[in-house]
From TrEMBL:
GO terms for molecular function: formate transmembrane transporter activity. It is found in: Membrane. The chain crosses the membrane at residues 29-51, 57-90, 102-125, 158-184, 241-259. GO terms for cellular component: plasma membrane. The lineage of its organism: Bacteria, Pseudomonadati, Pseudomonadota, Gammaproteobacteria, Chromatiales. Belongs to the FNT transporter (TC 1.A.16) family. It is a multi-pass membrane protein. Gene3D superfamilies: Glycerol uptake facilitator protein (1.20.1080.10). This is Formate transporter. Keywords: Membrane, Transmembrane, Transmembrane helix. Its main location: membrane.
Length: 271
């Protein structure tokens, strides 16, 4: 699989974070748009499999195909830049300022949202045969998910916000492990395998991914699911984004950076 040592692939991750800051605004938004659209289509794919087979595990096992495709194409998700760009800032790479980091996050988030909404409109038309029929079974499953993951958290009050934050945090622990997985190998099969494993964990456990939710809840609203735009933003997207940021940065980025780049003192052993 041409495995790279941690000191090698973590340095690659810092280089990637620096490169994303220097990317043009046009390219940043376009790549993020394609990432959001690809991931949203993968959600439709996985939910359709789960509905048709009656087995959510099969859908979860196949969902990572979307994540693998978008990263092999060099597209960017907000969850990934939450992890990579701060590493370049912490490494004091020239020109990687806090302001430019925030701008990169904002542009990627905007592109992801646009791509997710593009597929949401397609899904709305597809699940209703162009508004000529009732929402089909796959659409109903998506609507039910949207309701349970907004109204359900709202009913739990502060506890709902806390669990949302934690599910967002653990989500980007796994998703950023997928980003790292793409860097540990120099071969396509190795990269895909490295990405596939943690993405299955996040999707099957129902952790909260900010970009997935940019598709899941708007399409639910389009189809008439019983929750509001406020429910989606306050009782899902905001705590999910915050959790994604903290999880990717602390549980993956900082953990790898501090132990493989800015390492502590090493004990010297006599030879």
């Amino acid at each position: 699989m041409s495995y790279l040592q941690p000191t090698e692939f973590v340095t690659k991750l810092v280089d990637q974070g620096e490169a994303k800051v220097y990317m043009s605004e046009r390219d940043t938004v376009l790549r993020a748009f394609m990432a959001g659209a690809t991931l949203a289509l993968a959600v439709i794919f996985a939910v359709t499999i789960a509905v048709n087979t009656g087995n959510f595990l099969i859908g979860a096992l196949l969902f990572p195909v979307g994540f693998s495709m978008l990263y092999l194409m060099g597209y960017d998700l907000l969850t990934g830049v939450f992890t990579l760009v701060p590493l370049a800032w912490l490494d004091r790479r020239p020109g990687v300022t806090f302001g430019r980091m925030l701008k990169c996050w904002a542009l990627v988030g905007l592109g992801n949202l646009m791509g997710a909404l593009f597929i949401a409109v397609f899904g709305w038309l597809n699940f209703t045969q162009g508004w000529s029929q009732e929402v089909n079974e796959v659409g109903q499953a998506i609507m039910a998910t949207g309701e349970s993951r907004t109204v359900g958290y709202r009913e739990a009050g502060l506890g709902g916000w806390i669990i949302l934050f934690l599910r967002g945090m653990f989500c980007n622990w796994m998703v950023s492990m997928g980003v790292v997985g793409a860097a540990i190998s120099t071969t396509v099969p190795g990269k895909i395998l490295g990405m596939w494993m943690p993405i299955i964990v996040f999707f099957y456990l129902g952790f909260e991914h900010s970009v997935v939710n940019m598709f899941l809840f708007p399409i639910g609203l389009m189809m008439g699911a019983p929750f509001t735009l406020y429910d989606y933003i306050f009782w899902n997207e905001i705590p999910t984004v915050l959790g994604n940021l903290v999880g990717g940065l602390t549980l993956v980025g900082l953990a790898l950076y501090t132990t493989h780049v800015r390492t502590g003192a090493k004990k010297q052993f006599a030879v």
